[in-house]
Amino acid sequence: MQNGVPTSHSSSITLMPYLSGMIAGISQKLNTLMSKLHKLIDLIRSQTVLIASESVQLKQHLTTAASSAHKQESLARESARPALRSTWPSGLPH
User: Fold this and answer.
1) Structural contact between residues 6 and 14, judged by C-beta atoms closer than 8 angstroms
2) How far is CA 24 from each of CA 9, 19, 28, 36, 54, rounded to the nearest angstrom?
3) In this structure, are residues 94 and 85 in contact, taking their beta carbons and an 8 Å threshold?
4) Cα–Cα distance, 40 to 44 (Å, whole number)
């Protein structure tokens, strides 16, 4: 300070605590944001694994249901054939 007027060196010294406080506040907010983003990514990752697992189970259930429906359809056709043959007029080939 010269004659009561701060010089550039002395004004930068007075700004340092202020800037340090600002930087600390920004750093803390950034760390909080990064922590929340990390938790969000972990949640998305766990939900993705859960969805993938459930979709594999769903595919297995659908495959089993389709196979069962196909078997039931085949059995229904097989059981219907003798009934149809018995109703055909005589003289027609079976």
Assistant:
1) yes
2) 23, 8, 6, 18, 45
3) yes
4) 6
pTM check: above 0.85: no
Average pLDDT, the chain: 83
pLDDT tens digits, residue range 15-59? 788 889 999 999 999 999 999 999 999 999 999 999 999 999 999
Of the chain, the end-to-end C-alpha distance in Å amounts to 119
Positive/negative CA dihedral, 57, 59, 62, 66: negative
Instruction: Give the residue carrying structure tokens 């930087």.
Output: 23
